[in-house]
Amino acid sequence: MDRMDQDERPPYASSFGAVAVEYAAHRPDYARAAVGWAVERAPGRRVLDLGAGTGKLTATLAALDADVTAVEPDPAMLAELRRSLPAVRALAGSAESIPLPDASVDAVLAGNAMHWFDMAVAGPEIARVLAPGGILAGLWNVMDDGAEWVAELARVGGKAVIGPRDTPASWRAATADMHLPKTGGTARFGSPEHAEFPHGQRRTADSLVATLATRAGVLVMPEPERAALLDRLRGFLASRPETARGEFTLPMLTGVVLLQQM
Fold first, then answer.
1. Fewer beta carbons under 10 A from the terminal one: N or C of the chain?
2. What pTM does this model have?
3. Closest CA to 123 of 151, 86, 95
4. Average pLDDT of the chain?
5. What gap in Å lies between CA 60 and CA 68, rounded to an integer?
6. How far apart are alpha carbons 262 and 260 in whole angstroms?
7. Tens of pLDDT along 8-50?
8. How far is 183 from 37, CA to CA, in rounded Å?
9. Which residues, other chains included, contact 222 with Cβ-Cβ below 8 Å and sequence gap of 6+?
10. Contact 164/133 with Cβ under 8 angstroms?
């Protein structure tokens, strides 16, 4: 999906709640090695999953024995997170208004969410809840377009399906300055450190189309346009030997942008 100006974000950012159950069922988790690498750079195990959605990243953090708190602004997404992870502390809030005390966490992680943050407001707020030496890490799952059929899928689907944060090279470019406030103000974090970890998701043609249907750019399409796009994707996957029959692994990477407090 395209990186959007501030006034364009709300329709996209608020589109996920209507498909919270589908999002939980079809979106991939994050490479465990990527999550572990980020958490190990923090001074302690208290972790905030910010913009936690339905808990994809939260679940991996819990499995790594982090002391995790999840914060999510969308009521439907938060309800799904609480249903699937009842033992996790899950709160309503946003990157711009975090319902936690000062210096209460050692790391703030955001899974496929940091591009929604208004860093002019969120940067100071994240810095406020971080303990000294704490880290901010954004994680994104990107499709590995080094596989020829994935590159062709990107062409067929267009930017609504696979956009400038959804393949490795474009992800690195799009996240190079994402931590900086766009409307003035002081940067609260130093230069980003990027790392990528192999990942994959077992899919069928039908379940991959269902996954792609949860992309924000697809969700906000007029229904006839959305239906035509999904039919085109089904036709493409049916035509490829890699994806036409049964299960296959969608080649992916989990990319991490790690930032230290200044």
1. C
2. 0.88
3. 95
4. 91
5. 10
6. 6
7. 344 444 445 456 888 788 889 999 999 999 999 999 999 999 9
8. 31
9. none
10. no
- 171 half-sphere exposure, CB direction, 13 A CA radius: 24
Q: Which of 110, 133, 92 is nearest to 30 (CA)?
A: 110
How far is C-alpha 54 from the chain's CA centre? 11
Tokens 């696979």 sit at which residue? 162
For range 251-257, the mean pLDDT:
97
Strands (E), 73-162: 89-92, 105-111, 130-143
Q: Which two tokens stand for residue 89?
A: 């502390």
Q: What percent of the chain lies above the pLDDT cut of 70?
A: 93
Q: Poorest-confidence range of 19-33, 81-95, 120-134?
A: 19-33
d(CA 262, CA 243): 46
- The token duo for 67 is 């002391």
Give the length of the chain.
262
